[in-house]
Each structure stands twice: as structure tokens, then as C-alpha cells.
Amino acid sequence: MKDRLSYGATKAPALIAAALILAGGAGLARADEPSDKNPAEDASAPAAAPVEAPSTAPPPAATTAAPPAATPAPPASVPAPAETAPASWFARPPLALVVGEGARQFKLTFYGFVEADYIYDTTRSYDDAMGSSIVARKDTYDGNHSRSQFSMRNSRLGFAFESPVVGGVKPTAVLEADFFGHQETPPGTTENTYFDSPTFRIRHAYVKLANPYVDVLLGQTYDLFGWQNFSSPCSLEFLGLPNQLFSRNPQLRLSHGFAADGAVGVDVAISAGRPAQRDSQIPDGSAGLRINFNRWKGITTPGNVRTTFEPASIGVSGIVRQFKVNAFAPPPTRDSNSATGWGMAVDALLPVIPAASEGDRSNRLTLTGSFVRGTGIADLITSGGGAQFPPLLNPQQANPAPIYEPNIDSSLVTFDRDNVLHTINWTAFRVGLQYYLPPSGRFLFAANYTQSHSDNLWKLYPRGSADVELLGKIADTSRYVDANLFWDATPALRLGISGQYTQVEYLDGISKPHNLRGMAQTVYVF
User: Fold this and answer.
1) What is the DSSP string of 364-391?
2) What is the pLDDT of residues 502-516, one digit of tens each?
3) pTM for this prediction
4) Class of the CATH-defined domain 4-50+90-525
């Protein structure tokens, strides 16, 4: 049997090269959704980079110097032509439809992208998106054989709506969807259905009511916890990366920004979000504070295509949630056990080499980072380690054995050997860099490292217990690292390649398998 590492090293380059040829020189890019900014602005294509003036353009001084004294001034009745800066090479007008005039103007902006992904893995651990899946063990067939996948499922379509101000309130709305909808993965469904007929799903669907006192957001978008998506990593891999704080949910959010035009601005927000368990009866509660250094700005790409010009920022946030789980006993349900989950997060965006404007993109360096700790929050950090409920005890040797029917998603809570309910602890962090290469900034190099660890899973599934077989199915530690290279071939076409490494540690302490992924991607942004 060939070693997986050497096998992947010989096969992955060939597959990536073939993928690039099939894609017409394709590369990668992956974007992510609107932030709390104006939806139409947030949905635009890669943001402005350095101005690349045509060779026939006059030198800068020629456009700014005053005319010679001998040149007569134009008559007073003829206005002087306005001086405008040349448009950035990256500038791309939005696809917008405007109806009405003045104060009664309605605007609809279409945005999105078509994305082709070509993926090769050295194990059969993942579908096209890694998500919270864990690497297959080395002593399994899947852990020793590779897989290749071609996918269009991350292609995206969005609509941003703006309407007139009424009573001092500015209504806007966003509706955005992709093709990662809920459906069985192979072998639960055919591969033809999974890749060629994917399910359309909602990513963002919200209304925002902005006014000078408080902004109200109603609907589904990024959670306030972690101040998503302001400091998200730049990567070809589908967000969220393994171990990344990343989540979208229906919510009701109230927020306000102080001194937005000052040197230092402060954003505060509170939200009530979809409860992680509907039977808990209580929505998740979140609150956050973020400091923006508005004179210290840089270039950043959260995801793979939406490159923007943002201030340095540091945010802190927290979440509290309640669980009410069916008692660990055979059905029908007669009782429930309660537990409280919580989380805290610190997130940062730091332009190490800042930019002067959206067009100042060459030789710019930006760092992103996040630290999160909490319990009962695996669904918010693309983690979970495959944790599951242990089997019910069967002292009477009943046939069939009794089966526990949980009323909560897996990986959030579990029961110990004494049938006591516990939330599962997780600590995760992420660091990333983005460097926009000279001379133009059209090439972007990005790298990321993430890690998560649970400090109580080993206590909940101790060795020698009745559920010892779960030790070989649950991992309490996960690591991920990637390196990505993007190229903006045109203002609308971004290409890229990526190498990614994942490793997990199973509870049995024996297996620490890893996976290598090679990835190529083409994205056309509109």
C-alpha cells in the first residue's frame, strides 16, 4: 500500500494542472457575503486596487498643475471642466436598476459570481466543502485512498434593495443564495444529483432599517458573535474554514455606531438569535463592542473575491444560550435536563502596511485573527469533532436495544456515564495574512492557520467505559493550514490555486491522521 503523502504528492500536481487547463487557465477565489455596510456596496466585486494609468496618460503633475499664465481663462458663462481622478483598474460598475427620481428613488442591485472548483484530497474524508468533518482514520479504507471532485455549488446570486427614506428611516434589504442547500451527500444520493443538480439555499435574507439613533436588522445574516464577517480569513477553501468562528442565523439585531467619521469609532450591538435548540424556548442572546481606527485603513479580502478598504478594528463579543434536552432514557419523553452554553470572542483586523485609498493596493499587508472560547458552541465555530450521544445502557439485553431520541443537534451537549447532561467545551483560534504583491496588487498571497481543542471530551468519553468504541470516532483536536495565490486576470475574473493541510487527534490517542488538499478555482464576478 502506498503512503498517502507520497501518493498525494505525485497525483495532486497532475490533477491541478489538468483542472487549470479545463478551466481555461482557471484559478481560485471565494467571496463571502454582505457585512453591515450598505448592501449594494458590500456585494460589489473585488474592491479598487492601485491605479494603472495607460501609457498614453499624462504624468500626474500634468493633471494637477495650474495652467500657464498666458493661457486665457474660459468665459464666465462656460464652466471649467471638472478634474476627476482616473478610475482604478479594478473598478467595475454595479449592475443596478434605478426607478424614480430624487427622494422617491428605488434601486435594485444584482450581484454574485459563477465559480468553478477543482479539488483533490489524499483521503476520502471530505465532500467539496470541509466544514466540521474530521479526517478519516489511518486504519480505514477511506483514510488510505484519495478523491477528486469538480464542483459549481459555491456559485452565488444576490439582490440588494434600497428604497426612499420615510420618517427618517432608510429601509434596505438583501436576498442572497447559493447551491449548498440541504441534501444528502453521496452515497446517500447519487454523485450526479449532488454535483449536477444541487439544492438552492438562502444565505442572507434580511431587512435593515437605518436611522440616526439605532439600526434595526431583521432576518438571516452573519451572527453578531465574532463580529462576522469583518475579519474573516482570505482563502480558496469554502468558509468557514475548519475551526473558524463562522455562522449565519435568523436574528433581530439593534446596533449603533459612534463617531463613524472620527479618528476612532465605536460600534455597539445586541441581538436575539435563532435558538440552537428550539425546545429550549429561549433565543440565543449576543452582545458586542468593536473599536474602529478610521485613520488606519488597509486592503482586505474576507473570503475569496470581495476585496475592500477597511479600518483597523478590534471587536469583543459574547453569547449565552439555553438547552433543554430530553432525559437520557428510552422514549417516550418523560423529563428533560437543562444546561447553559456560552461563548466569548476577540477578533481583529490589522493593516500592517496600510493603504491610503481603495486604489492603493500594491505592496499592502493585512493580518486577521480570532480567539474564541466557550461551551455548547460547536455549531458556531465549524468544529465538533464528531461528538455524539453514547448508546443507552441495555442491562436487560433487550432486542432490539433501546434507542435514545435526542431533541438537539449533535456536538453541543452529551451525557456522561451517570446520565448527567454536560455542554462540550471548545477553544479555537485563527491567524491569517494577506499580502497584495507589487507592482499592481493584482496578485494576492494569503495564508491561514486555525486550531480547535476540547478540554472535556476525554472526561465525557473515558477509556474503559461502556461506550469505548466512540473513542475511535470522536476527535478533540483539529488543526488546519493553507496557502493561497490569487490573480485578478480582469476586473471581473479572478483565478487561484491553494494547498491545504488538516490533521485531527482522536480520543483514543492512537490515530492522528492528516489530509492534503490541492485546489484550483475560477470565479467570474458580476
Assistant:
1) EEEEEEEEEEEES-GGGTT--TT--PPP
2) 999 999 988 899 999
3) 0.83
4) mainly beta
